[in-house]
Amino acid sequence: MSSFRWEENVSLQRYNTFNIPVTTRYLVRVQNAGLSKLVQSPLFQGHRHVVLGGGSNLLFTGKTYDGIVLKNEILGIETLSRDDLHTTLKVGGGVAWSSLVGYCLTHSLGGIENLSLIPGTVGAAPIQNIGAYGMELSDVLERVEIVDLTDGRTRTMTRAECMFGYRDSVFKRLKDVLVSTVTIKLTNAPHHRLHTAYGSIQQVLSEQGIHTPTISSVSEAISLLRRHKLPDPRELGNAGSFFQNVTIDEETCTSLKTKYAALPVFTKADGRRLVPAAWFIENCGWKGRRIGQVGVYANHALIIVNFGEAEGDEVKAISDRIIEDVNRQFGVRLVPEVNIVR
């Protein structure tokens, strides 16, 4: 059975959560890891290409993409092992992340409940080491299987080989790969230690009268928080957090704190100091600001939104202005979390 199929001149508007109108020359739907024939074909060799998952972390800046879009549609959730403490799952890269979270909740498996309501696919998750509310994918990931798009060969990479960091991994440098499967090790409910100290999780649980939280109740609390802060891309085009939070050293932290006493700083377990990018953006006056069909969401300064008719270059122009303003005022340079495809 063929592992892929070609389509020509395909609109990607419904495949990107920014709802940007863009047409790709070719679209290839990838349904398993057997891609040697594809990547060795003259057509593939003669065009640039980009991998598309759920389209939730991608911004096309042109009206057309004169290349090949590989849409990862590799499905399946397989239990590799289970004992009293842990369950290990192997998950297809095309599985929606929300579907995997739902599967884990149904089967009382802990480890990714804090990553509830994050859009996108499983295959995209390791690339930027998705994280939220004090947890990251790297906390549970065991290994990934990738397809090298230069020759079609498959390879297994361990957690250490992935070189995970804050919203970072080796895959941001090994750009020419497709993640076919991700293997994660989860904790069975009776033994799982919940992480509820970050943000307003405890407050939401208390307001709901929950004093002994479960994996599901933590997931529901986080989903509630995210729905309040983040716009639904089906109603207002966006790609979630447009910028990474800012990692600063001790000297920069001290300098900024001297000037801005209200600066929020979070110290991670590994000693990293993080400042919410939203704080810088809001204090530059961008929160709730709109220019034409593009603006910064009124409820969360980290979200750039398409009010309906924007094109990709307009979104990029606003993001560039935000970067310039933050750098000019604070001496800090924001880094886009969104993958910008020109």
From TrEMBL:
Positions of the FAD-binding PCMH-type domain: 19-189
Keyword Chloroplast in record: no
Annotated keywords: Cell cycle, Cell division, Cell shape, Cell wall biogenesis/degradation, Cytoplasm, FAD, Flavoprotein, NADP, Oxidoreductase, Peptidoglycan synthesis
Coiled-coil segments on the chain, per record: none
EC number(s) stated in the UniProt entry for this protein: 1.3.1.98
Gene Ontology BP terms: cell division; cell wall organization; regulation of cell shape
Protein name: UDP-N-acetylmuramate dehydrogenase
Organism: Penicillium chermesinum
